[in-house]
Write a structure and sequence with these properties.
Distance between the termini: 50 Å
EC number: 2.6.1.2
Strand content: 5-15%
Order of helices and strands: HEHHEHEHEEHEHEHEEHHHEEHHEEEH
Strand order of the largest sheet: 2-9-8-7-6-3-4-5
CATH topology of the largest domain: Aspartate Aminotransferase, domain 2
Keywords: Aminotransferase, Pyridoxal phosphate, Transferase
CATH architecture of the largest domain: 3-Layer(aba) Sandwich
InterPro entries: Ala_Aminotransferase (IPR051926), Aminotransferase_I/II_large (IPR004839), PyrdxlP-dep_Trfase (IPR015424), PyrdxlP-dep_Trfase_major (IPR015421), PyrdxlP-dep_Trfase_small (IPR015422)
Largest sheet: 8 strands, mixed
Number of domains: 2
Cofactor: pyridoxal 5'-phosphate
Structural class: alpha/beta
CATH class of the largest domain: Alpha Beta
Protein name: alanine transaminase
């Protein structure tokens, strides 16, 4: 090329959750039946959308307005509905003009990081959700900055680590939390949120809270949204329809902006987000028009409660199998529908294997694992040996060696068999 057209952050754009599918498809073509535990799609796992929600969609589709453009910020009825839900609770107030719709939170994440000043960094949790970490790193043209979540403390954030990194890195302008967390399923206690807010106040930072799983919580502590405790800190809260309805194909997410007027720089940044969305014209109209009908239906609360109970049942069952297993740490999640397992330090090596009956597949795996991170090496052997596809924690930009699987399997017997197989394969691998 006449000029270098490659983006400075191109090498930071990774998404192991889907990238591992390519390897799984190769194994499936070689005759290995694959159990897909890599991606959080309830619909793909057989979860049914309630008929009354489908009726709301059918009714809305019948209205010709659902086929047209929406306003740039989103359908006013939807934004006013969200505003009313948030206000009157004693929390930070929000106006409908401070709500901006996107084509899913992936779209929102991309725009949020793309239009930050190049020198401004956002530090996020580690293990890191790759959509956030890749977009932030690509924006900066540098590796993602992160603070540690501690698996020995049920994945709670290391606040000393966060404070020190903020203190000694003046480029850090914002702090990201994912609540409930993906991939760990940790739910941030109110006290921890307040301590993060105190750090943001002290160093004049803004906050981002990705709360796509906010209505999937089943631990002992309640879910506390950041907008309930943000005080005067400029804050962006991210929500969406994809997980709880579930309707991932709707690609409907939104951000709620709090305390915009508290800081003129933050206010100008938010205007940039709106201007960037205006260049796209708008987000998809149909799900925005359906949203108030679904959220206002009295059956929705029962739907959410039943969902959370199902995931709690799965989390309890998996924890009962994995909790006392030598060589790994498996804290029980309290929200979302993922379970992360961490190998003990220095327990993995590049000499460990799993038995693979088919010699052709065994030879393929031996070549495929050369040079891989040790947890990804295990994941490849696991897939070839058992057909179970999980995601290595190294794929979440983490130095911890481990893997994430989902709690989405609707059949009790199949789910328990999958987790017990994981346990057996871990034992076999560590003793090989």
């Amino acid at each position: 090329m006449r000029n270098n057209i490659i983006h400075a952050g191109a090498d930071e754009l990774t998404y192991e959750i889907r990238e591992i599918v390519e390897f799984g498809e190769k194994l499936r073509a070689m005759g290995v039946p694959i159990v897909w535990e890599n991606i959080g799609d309830p619909v793909a796992k057989g979860h049914l959308v309630p008929e009354w929600i489908k009726d709301a969609v059918r009714e809305t589709v019948a209205d010709d307005k659902s086929f047209g453009y929406s306003p740039t910020k989103g359908v006013l009825e939807a934004r006013e509905f969200i505003s009313k839900m948030r206000n009157g609770t004693g929390a930070v107030p929000i106006a409908s003009d401070d709500i901006l719709f996107f084509n899913g939170l992936g779209d929102a994440i991309s725009i949020i990081y793309t239009y930050l000043n190049r020198g401004a960094r956002v530090i996020g949790p580690n293990p890191a959700y790759p959509t956030h970490s890749s977009a932030e790193a690509a924006h900066a043209g540098l590796h993602h900055l992160s603070y540690n979540l501690n698996p020995h403390r049920n994945w709670l954030p290391d606040l000393d680590d966060l404070r020190n990194k903020v203190k000694y890195n003046p480029s850090i302008s914002g702090i990201l939390i994912i609540n409930p967390d993906n991939p760990t399923g940790m739910v941030y206690p109110k006290k921890v949120l307040e301590e993060i807010i105190a750090i943001a106040n002290e160093y004049d930072l803004f906050l981002i809270s990705d709360e796509i799983y906010a209505n999937i919580v089943y631990g002992d502590a309640p879910m506390v949204s950041l907008y309930e405790v943000a005080g005067n800190v400029p804050t962006i809260v991210m929500r969406g329809l994809s997980k709880e309805i579930p309707w991932p194909g709707s690609r409907c997410g939104w951000i709620e902006v709090y305390n915009r007027e508290r800081d003129p720089v933050f206010a100008r940044y938010v205007k940039t987000l709106v201007d960037a969305k205006m260049l796209e014209v708008c987000s998809t109209t149909l799900p925005q028009r359906v949203l108030p009908k679904i959220f206002s239906d009295t059956r929705y609360h029962d739907h959410l409660r039943n969902q959370s109970l199902q995931y709690k049942h799965r989390a309890d069952a998996a924890y009962a199998i994995l909790r006392d297993m030598p060589g790994v740490l498996a804290p029980k999640p309290a929200g979302a529908f993922y379970y992360s397992v961490v190998f003990d330090d220095c327990i993995l090596s590049n000499r460990q294997t799993l038995a693979i009956a088919d010699k052709k597949i065994a030879l393929f795996i031996e070549g495929a694992v050369a040079g891989l991170p040790l947890d990804k090496r295990f994941v490849y052997y696991l897939m070839a040996s058992s057909g179970i596809c999980v995601v290595p924690l190294s794929g979440f930009n983490s130095e911890l060696a481990g893997f994430r699987f989902t709690l989405l399997e609707p059949d009790d017997a199949i789910f328990e068999h999958t987790v017990r197989t994981l346990m057996e394969k871990i034992k076999e691998y560590l003793h090989s």
